[in-house]
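Let's practice the habit of predicting before peeking. Look at the sequence and jot down your guess about where helices and strands might fall. Then scroll down.
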Amino acid sequence: MTADRYAHNRVRYHAVIVGGGIYGSLVAKRLSENGWKVLILEAGTGSVATWEGYSAAVDDYRAALHKSPNSPYLPNPAAPSPDNTDPSGYFVQQLDGPLYASDYLRTLGGTTLHWEGVVPRMHEGDFLTQTRYGVGKNWPLKVHDKDPSALSPTTLAMLHKYYSEAEFELGVAGDAKALGKSGVMVPKYTYPMKNIPQSYLDRKIAEVLPEKIGYGPHGTASVEPNMVPAPQARNSSPNPDYRKGEGFRPVGAIGIPNYGERCQGNSSCIPICPVQAKYTPLRTQSQFKDDLVTVATRSVVSRVLFHDPLEKSRPRNGRATGVEYKVYEDPRSRAFTTHYAEADIVVLAAHAIENAKLLLASGVDNKHIGRNLMDHPLVYAKALMPDTRGVGGNIGPHRGPPATSFLDGFRDGAWRVGFSPFRAAVSNWGWGGMADAFSHEVRALVDEGYLPHVDEKPKAAKHLSGRALRRKLAGHLPRQFQMELLLEQPANENNTVTISPDFRDNLGNFRPVIKYAFGSDSDYVVDGARHAVAVARELFTRLGAKEYGSKVAPVRKPGDEAVIARFEDGGFHYDIVGARHGAGTHIMGLSADDSVVDEFQRSHNHPNLYAVGCGSMPAIGTSNPTLTGAAMALRSADQIHSDLMDLHNTLSVTLFEKAGQ
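Done guessing? Here is the structure:
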């Protein structure tokens, strides 16, 4: 890999890829393995792409007073990243209404630097929500000849093939047999690594799970809950049975490859794993073929070109000719130089919002661009175990990844006709999850001497510090128990990303203008959230835990996470926040009449323009979307390889025929 900031003008590549995150990295790796010359243009810096730079980011996170997903990574005004504690810092959106409440990261490695690393596959029903449940949109995949509510055998085989390849590239630890019980598509499969061990709390919950749980309005649905190990892109013990005994070798840290070959339970996966046991695209980039992949950082693509940048003439065939990009040296400066890169294929592999912004800035004529913006609505249900001051009350939080198990069984079923399904993760991080959660508790004890929503307010405030503060936290933190309830949000065309000449960043590029709400799907999502909270409440009761939360509607203060919506249930007020799972904006479909790209993520309007990633997904179910996005990126890479073969074979034949004349 050549870390070259400048791709010389007029140099032609087989493919130019916009974005050095997971999807761009996987496409580049696959294409270079087939001998194609690739350029990656990354808007951000490459500051964490070395051992020294990554270690500095770890130190920055530890020193940060305000802990949020972006806090280890230096702010970059030239390629700004949104922050969910400042919802209008980069995004343009109305602060007095529902907010798009998720962030992402614009730097080499992308948002997968601070992701959780959980990688479940989607259910079959997630691809056919409109046909099965009359909700959302279907994926444009071939269905069964005799049953349009089921995927065809060839489609199922294709999905398994690319899921398996993505799990190899990411290095996934999991238990396929356990997941198969909950209806996920993992037929006769072995993951590369054995699952991350389930936590003490996971096992305690499994002990009290009933055979059936009443679910939905008045408990009318009867669901068999399963406590299953969460598949994770995180180094574990290699599985000797993988690929019929071939085994798997974990990939370690950048610069020190024998470091980080096992998860060490540091409990800071979001936003940074200090030993690099969690997958990041830096691993994939370390495997690039040096002579075939060029990575140019600090290179912000401003538009896709459909003409020669010097002649300004648009070709009749509608093919993309390359991209225009702006190179900056100092992120704090507004100075930049403009460059052009030419390629046979152009691949947009940035975040869903950035891809949509770029398609709009490039003048691609498709009315669906920027529509159907989605996220996973997320609700936290909190409880405290009994204060036994012994083993019974201490459930051992803050040891290991955010979650090692799912409470499965509620992700797919007939109830999806009426309300959103959910996936429950058992949090290993106590009441963490929201930005700066633990600092809020410490500040409350220091400033007021008690924990609001937990303790009775004392008649006279007594500020806690020193030994008294430590004693209070020691009796409180180990008993924290939280369920993270992740819900489905159907695609809605009224949730949009647009651009306006009135809103630009320091380099003159467009800022995303966001319009986002549950809208007509509000009852569907909120009712699903109420039913999910009811399931969590039953578990709390069975464990002898007491639910806690706000009994008055919270007032958002500067620095708090953005909130999409709120609801009240059982005397508590719940916030619905974003899970940072941005999707939609350039969804796939059958034609330009209903979508932006086809099933290979190829533009309906321009045959050599691809937009890959979660932005292409017309439905996301309740699975963290990164694995599915990775699988589809690999499928796109294979199609791009086929396109390039056709193009260059045609060119060879044409040149041969001309030479013979």
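How did you do? The longest strand covers residues 337-348.
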